[in-house]
Design a protein that fits this description.
CATH topology: Lipocalin
Helix content: 10-25%
CATH class: Mainly Beta
Low-confidence stretches: 5-10, 12-19
Oligomer: single chain
Radius of gyration: 18 Å
Largest sheet: 8 strands, antiparallel, barrel
Amino acid sequence: MKRMVFALLLSLMILPVFAQDAQKITGIWWNDKKTSKIEVKEEDGKFVGTVVYINPEKYVNGEPEKDFNNPDAKLRSKSRLGLQILSGLKYNVSDKEWQNGRIYDPDNGKTYDCFAWFDKDANTLNLKGYVAGIKWMGRSTTWTRTTK
């Protein structure tokens, strides 16, 4: 009985540590080209990323670029600003990475399965998009933590 109580108390103490690790992904990130900033936050236990800033040099006629490569023709006239490009990431404690997500590339209009992780620096987020469940055949990108 004492072991069960001890195990329960230990697990209650450890859970916040895992939650802290999961939250490390939240914040504002520059994309790899430093053309836009993406805000990553938790929604319903999963992490999503939305474009919150686009470098004015990328504006067309004074407006942020449109999502002109979107496979849905109805969405091609929408601005890339405010576009959710990352969805569904869930933290995996044992692998120490966020998995089972999706990442949308507005440059080509394609959506990929993705996962994310940190190496040693909590200000450098690694993401990898892939297709058909083949992680090693994907494309990686690195985002850098910033502020609004």
